[in-house]
Write a structure and sequence with these properties.
This protein is mainly alpha-helical. The protein has 15 helices and four strands. It has a domain of 96 residues. 34% of the residues lie in helices and 2% in strands.
């Protein structure tokens, strides 16, 4: 082999290695559509505008608007008072500086418009167009205040599945809809199912958790603002989440059901199923995915008169009733979950 060919092959090998290494490192890095600096530019507002205060904004444009009443009665509106002892929150906190929006609006113009049956309008083009901002930028406006607030569990928001799927705070918390900015627990069902329609269909199956009846809520199991667990569960594992209600299945047991002790959804569909007890597959086929079938025995210990096919196709839990675990050994002295 010539020296030139050897150098060529070595160079090609090094180049391939560097390409793979760079590619792997690139895949590991987050690739936001916009950088943080770009998001910050989006939520600053017009740099040539000044802050004029809520009173100046509202008396010019929203004197007869329900928005003012709702906002002043809301949790955030309560902070408009300088002596509230809380960080000041006003219209310009979200919409940006408003001097250009009300430029040229005088008391005389407001009165003239009133006589003509018109409502004086702001120049909304100079304010932030919140609806046109990416979901991440919309949420960042809220997170300016709420990230550090201990009463609002949003410190996991940026890593949550909702944030990663372009859900913004205002999708669930419409700020101008009324005085109560939080969604009442019993109203969360409709709010969640407007997006999670496939889950809503599962709640209509014969065996289901009673979410439609409002006996349990989506937020009983899931934290919509994000958590360290998969599927934004409120607990670290699936079992910890389920045993908040199903405590009798928690254990620990002397005889546990092997590999399913930490993950209930190995056998159960959490939202709804066509099978009894939310089972993913009907018995005995669910059990036969892991266990070999066996013939049933009579009380005397001899094989039953049933043929082998009939013996296999029955419900395993008719005999193995303590299927989640038990402290009592079976007649054989081993744990067969019979008692």
């Amino acid at each position: 082999m010539s020296l030139r060919r050897t150098v060529y092959l070595v160079s090609l090998l090094i180049l391939s290695f560097l390409t793979i290494l760079y590619g792997c490192e690139t895949l590991k890095k987050a690739k936001p559509i916009y950088s943080i600096k770009e998001y910050e530019r989006m939520i600053v507002g017009r740099l040539d505008a000044d802050y004029v205060g809520t009173d100046n904004c509202l008396k010019a444009c929203h004197t007869h608007d329900k928005i003012r009443t709702y906002f002043e009665a809301s949790t955030m509106g309560a902070q408009l008072s300088a002596d509230s002892g809380m960080p000041l929150v006003d219209c310009e906190s979200c919409h940006g500086p408003g001097s250009l929006a009300i430029e040229g609006i005088t008391p005389e113009k407001v009165e003239e418009d009133k006589r003509q049956g018109k409502q004086t309008a702001c120049n909304y083009d100079t304010l932030l167009h919140l609806e046109s901002l990416p979901a991440g930028a919309q949420s960042l406006i809220c997170l300016k205040c709420h990230t550090a607030h201990a009463l609002f569990n949003v410190h996991n928001w940026n890593a949550s599945e909702h944030a990663q799927n372009d859900v913004s705070c205002s999708d669930c918390h419409p700020v101008h809809i009324g005085a109560d900015l939080t969604t009442k627990p019993r109203d969360t069902k409709q709010m969640c199912l407007k997006c999670h329609q496939e889950i809503g269909a599962e709640f209509s199956m014969p065996s289901r958790h009673p979410v439609l009846e409002k006996k349990i809520l989506c937020t009983d199991c899931h934290d919509p603002h994000g958590f360290i667990s998969e599927k934004i569960l409120r607990k670290t594992t699936v079992k910890e989440t389920c045993t908040q209600c199903h405590a009798e299945k928690d254990g620990p047991f002397l005889y546990e059901h092997a590999d399913i002790t930490e993950n209930c959804i190995t056998c159960h569909s959490p939202h709804g199923s066509v099978n009894n007890n939310l089972l993913k597959v009907r018995e005995p086929f669910l059990c036969l995915q892991c266990h070999m079938g066996h013939k049933m025995n009579t009380s005397g210990g001899s094989p039953s008169s049933l043929d082998s096919k009939s013996a296999f196709y029955t419900r395993c839990t008719d005999c193995h009733s303590q299927i989640h675990g038990t402290d009592i050994p079976s007649a054989s002295g081993t744990g067969r979950f019979i008692q």
